[in-house]
Design a protein that fits this description.
The complex is a heterodimer of chains A (328) and B (329). Chain A has 328 residues and is of the alpha/beta class. Chain A is 33% helix and 20% strand. Chain A has an 8-stranded parallel β-barrel with strand order 1-2-3-4-5-6-7-11, surrounded by 5 helices. In chain A, helix 1 runs parallel beside helix 2. In chain A, 58% of the residues are buried. In chain B, helix 3 links the parallel strand 3 and strand 4. In chain B, helix 1 runs parallel beside helix 2, helix 1 runs parallel beside helix 10 and helix 3 packs across helix 4. Chain B is an alpha/beta fold and 329 residues long. In chain B, strands 1-2-3-4-5-6-7-14 form an 8-stranded parallel beta barrel, surrounded by 6 helices. In chain B, strands 8-9-10 form a 3-stranded antiparallel β-sheet, with no helix packed on it. The longest helix of chain B is centred in the last third of the chain and has 19 residues. Classes of the chains: A alpha/beta (328), B alpha/beta (329). At the A-B interface, helix 3, helix 4, helix 5, helix 6 and strand 7 of A face helix 4, helix 5, helix 7, helix 8 and strand 10 of B.
Chain lengths: 328, 329
């Protein structure tokens, strides 16, 4: 299987012009195979991007990219439910531009609507084991993107199960890790505002709002109702191991940096032209955050294990049994 | 519809007896391992404990639910499947599950076992809930704490499944089962190990007159000399955004939805759940008794009594109706 690069959906509230221009450059220059589009964090932002969606899909498909649409992470209100139902409608509803080939479900409601049709399972669906993977495959999942917090042993088991079931398995290898979703908007809250009158303050922070500890140590990133890591998840040095496990798809999560360069660097590793460790070192500092890979190494996600990259905590130490948790 | 069912927590056999004696309609508990979302040292039930708990509760016409609501580890499904098998063998009244693969196993292997969907599955809309109903025969869904009461009412109008909501105790500001904050700071998560902000990773450090609480490598709060120091649950910590230290995600506060009983009834909610399997028997007894009295009064059309006991039980003395009211967002 030829390893494949995926560009996940833009998670942040960028101005629509920036969003359109970003994808135009991706279409022209980025060596990614699949591009996933959609506003998955906040329903209030979706109308802005809807105006440019058809043009962006056209531009990407004309450039030979496979385009998928992602469903929202949290679907609670009637309006959110209606939008999710439009997106996942079986009869090619207007909400799905011609050219988009699959829907990626990020909530169980979307998964319900997509049953019996080929679809993708996004990283916001709780997929932790091979029994769940088999159940998903039986309902039409052709590709699954694993949750960021899975350790290597779980990824290996799931990748093998995916090979047996004919389901492609994807792992996020670059970009801040999604950690939580809420009904409450923390961007609004940080500005003394309410979600209903948020003034779209999330638009001020194209890579999210930095959250530090009271000691001033960078810790998390707020993106509206979503909370992300501060550290930039990077598994460039682990790409070879992932491929050996049977992982065939590698996801880059967009940030307001040169994503073409990121894609080229990962492509070079997948093609065997560059060392993963060297690429990790090159990309370190591209966004203003240290590289982290702790989830994969079965320790705190904020940590970086191995290599010469900077440490999130500054406390470099080998993994102790305690760090590894009770189930390792 | 009859009155609300009152679903009460137990982390120990003593707490179970306290809950039963104080008027619980059902008690929920977990086995003593990583298969449940309150996998704390010294807490939870052996198989023998569960057998005794079922005998004690059933003799008093109280039901027992077993929470097997973490996500089974890839390549190691055994403990979770044995937990389901043993719960069925011990004749508990329902199991509370979250994982799709485990629900599939339970529905196939134990067709007569009543299945409830854990809050950890975070089923927040009618389509999600119908999936669990149709695929596995789930009879009741514990709703995630992300919905307003009007949203719950609309949801109940669309599904043929009973709904259960949290009314008292700890409050996750994040959608439950969809949060890796603890995992990011400590490597241990609610979904994988059944722990959040585990005590094994907590430190308290004096800093002059102040006291810092840390979790893993991160400071979660710094308390001044005049402030009571709380446990560093990550999402209840004080952090700095836009140069301002604040309780960014949630204040140290407890959920108490007692004032919303008429609204929850009108919304079609079947059962009310009290959080707190980590709590001692005195706490459990007092909270369950207060809610029992309130529900009895409500069912009889009498004014709901204000419990001084309950006010004393809430974290830091502060309480909230959480996501049930839109202003929380």
């Amino acid at each position: 299987m030829t390893p494949s690069l995926t560009l996940g959906p833009v998670l942040f509230n960028w101005p629509v012009d920036r969003w359109r221009d970003f994808y135009a450059r991706i279409a022209d220059e980025a060596p990614v195979d699949t591009v996933i589009l959609g506003e998955i964090v906040c329903f209030k932002r979706a109308p802005f991007f809807a105006t440019a969606m058809d043009a962006v899909v056209d531009r990407l498909t004309a450039a030979g990219k496979t385009v998928w649409l992602a469903s929202p992470i949290l679907v609670g209100s009637e309006r959110e439910l209606a939008a999710m139902r439009d997106l996942t409608a079986a009869d090619g509803d207007d909400a799905v531009p011609t050219g988009a080939t699959l829907i990626e479900a990020n909530d169980m409601g979307a998964l319900a609507r997509l049953a019996g049709r080929p679809h993708a399972v996004g990283p916001m669906i709780n997929l932790y084991n091979e029994a769940t993977l088999a159940w998903l495959a039986g309902r039409g999942a052709v590709s699954v993107s694993l949750p960021a917090e899975l350790p290597a042993a779980s990824v290996a088991t799931l990748a093998k199960a995916g090979c047996d079931l004919g389901v492609a398995v994807e792992v996020q290898v670059w970009g801040r890790a999604p950690l939580a979703i809420s009904a409450r908007c923390y961007h609004a809250r940080a500005h003394g505002l309410h979600k209903d009158g948020c003034q779209y303050v999330c638009g001020n922070d194209p890579d999210g709002l930095p959250v530090a500890t009271m000691d001033g140590q960078p810790f998390l990133t707020v993106n509206g109702t979503q909370t992300l890591s501060h550290g930039c998840l990077c598994l460039a040095a682990e790409l070879e191991a992932l491929a050996a496990m049977g992982v065939g798809r590698f996801r880059l999560s967009p940030h307001a940096v040169d994503m073409v360069r990121v894609a080229e660097a990962f492509r070079a590793v997948l093609d065997g032209r560059r060392e993963g460790r060297a690429v990790a070192a090159e990309l370190d500092g591209l966004i203003d955050a240290p590289l982290v890979n702790g989830f994969f190494h079965d320790t705190a996600g904020a940590r970086h294990v191995g290599g010469a990259a900077r440490f999130q905590s500054g406390k470099e130490k080998p993994l102790s049994q305690k760090d590894k948790g009770s189930m390792s | 519809m009859d009155g609300f069912e009152l679903i009460c927590p137990a982390g120990t056999p003593a707490a179970l007896r306290a809950a039963v004696d104080a008027g619980a309609d059902a008690v929920y508990l977990g086995f003593r391992d990583e298969t449940n979302a309150r996998n704390f040292p010294g807490l939870n039930f052996t198989r023998e404990d569960v057998a005794e708990a079922v005998a004690y509760a059933h003799a008093r016409k109280v039901e027992v639910f077993v929470a097997i609501n973490t996500y089974p580890q890839a390549g190691g499904l055994g403990p979770w499947r044995r937990a389901v098998d043993d719960a069925a063998r011990l004749k508990v009244d329902a199991v509370i599950l979250a994982d799709l693969g485990l629900l599939d196993y339970a529905a196939g292997r134990h067709p007569d076992l009543r299945l409830h969907l854990s809050v950890q599955a975070s089923a927040a809309n009618a389509d999600a809930i119908q999936l669990y109903r149709e695929a596995f025969g789930v009879r009741r869904v514990v709703l995630p704490r992300v919905l307003t009461v009007p949203e719950i009412a609309r949801l109940n109008a669309q599904v043929d499944v009973e709904t259960e909501v949290f009314v008292f105790g700890g409050l996750c500001p994040m959608a439950e089962g969809r949060c890796s904050l603890s995992s990011y700071a400590t490597g241990l998560s609610p979904n994988k190990q059944g722990v959040c902000s585990p005590a094994s990773h907590v430190r308290y450090e004096p800093r002059g007159a102040a006291l810092a609480s840390t979790l893993g490598d991160f400071t979660i709060n710094v308390f001044g000399a005049d402030e009571p120091a709380g446990y560093p649950t990550l999402c209840k910590g004080r952090f700095v955004a836009r140069d301002t230290p604040a309780y960014l995600f949630e204040e140290p506060t407890s959920l108490n939805a007692m004032d919303l009983l008429p609204d929850l009834k009108a919304a079609g909610v079947r059962a009310l759940k009290i959080e707190g399997r980590q709590r001692g028997k005195a706490y459990i007894g007092a909270v369950v008794r207060a809610y029992r009295e309130a529900l009895d009064a409500f069912a009889a059309g009498r004014p709901v009594p204000r419990s001084a006991d309950l006010q004393a039980m809430v974290e830091g003395g502060a309480q909230t109706t959480g996501a049930y009211k839109r202003a929380w967002r």
